[in-house]
Design goal:
This protein is mainly beta. The chain is elongated and about 65 Å long.
Length: 136
């Protein structure tokens, strides 16, 4: 199994970072120490996945691969021919693939650098993904 986004290979993943972030509302009573603070989770927990890597494959070419990933980051981020919003991200970190390493995500950011090489061209990239699905 390989790292993929909506079935598209992500080349050589050099770093994967996951953050589970609680959206907390905090309030400390005036004149009181931190042990008196009130902390409330009002909107739940978000998972942010940051994937960094290199793409230097021949098929598709680096330019075609960048276009494919860029095209996924459109206004709807909806699977073609499906009523499901968001894409499947498959992580190798969990071993062997399958449901344990699959996340439904939307693309928050896609950054890439293109370096033209003598033997082949390399694209280094960073993808910021947010787990979840939504209507848009």
């Amino acid at each position: 199994m390989a790292y993929t986004l909506d079935g598209n290979g992500l080349g050589t993943v050099t770093r994967e970072r996951m953050e589970k972030v609680s959206e907390l509302k905090t309030s400390a009573p005036p004149g009181q120490d931190s042990n008196k603070a009130i902390v409330v989770s009002i909107v739940g927990v978000l998972r942010v996945i940051i994937v960094e890597g290199e793409y230097a494959e021949d098929s598709p070419t680096p330019g075609a691969w960048v276009k494919t990933i860029s095209d996924l980051n459109d206004g709807l981020q909806k699977k073609s021919g499906s009523s499901t919003y968001g894409y499947t991200y498959q992580s190798d970190f969990y071993g062997g693939g399958g449901a344990a390493g699959q996340f439904t995500v939307k693309i928050k950011q896609f950054i890439y650098d293109y370096v033209k090489g003598v033997n082949n061209s390399i694209v280094t990239y960073k993808l910021v993904l947010v787990e979840g699905r939504g209507s848009t």
